[in-house]
């Protein structure tokens, strides 16, 4: 086995600064010797905690309270690059970020999943989502100003990002409307694409 002084410095590039990417970066930084580089690349400068978007939607948290600057990771020795990943060339061990190439000895892809709201007619124009921070903020404005009407919480496919979220959303909207004293004038229904709640999670 070669001693550490002879070990060549390696660069690990982690694509995606969500929960997966940040947890991986922290774990690798703790385990790897300091001369190895850990680089995290993300589109936005901030990490935001998706599980708290529901509280943003219900008006009990602000967007600011559920986000943290990714640059804070630099204090721990993790390099942070903000930019759009637009290409991966595994043969050359190179990634492209905003058209600029970065070499990687090791690559972790943690880019998450994108939403395809346009796959359903009318959804983007008429629906709101709590699955993004901007969507949760838009919903908060609707929920906190609602005085009468009907709320539909809809899942369009049996597999989605968080099995509990639609049911949690309906209960949080229920609580918010109770607090506002308008619950009796608003009906809430959940329309689910799964045969029973939490099926995908094995419930
Ligand atoms: C409302 C809600 C509630 C949830 N509640 C829970 C819960 O209670 N418990 C639980 O375990 N899970 C929960 N989840 C699911 C959990 O949030 C996800 O499983 C988790 O965020 C996935 O992490 P990830 O790192 O794989 O992807 P993401 O969090 O999606 O992170 C991917 C990152 O990559 C970036 N990115 C994507 N493409 C590019 C690109 N081309 N260039 C640069 N950057 C890019 C994105 O901007 C993002 O920052 C919830 C999700 C939602 C929406």
TrEMBL record:
FAD/NAD(P)-binding domain location: 11-154
SUPFAM superfamilies: FAD/NAD(P)-binding domain (SSF51905)
Pfam families: Pyr_redox_2 (PF07992)
InterPro entries: FAD/NAD-bd_sf, FAD/NAD-binding_dom, SQRD
One annotated GO molecular function: oxidoreductase activity
Protein name: FAD-dependent pyridine nucleotide-disulfide oxidoreductase
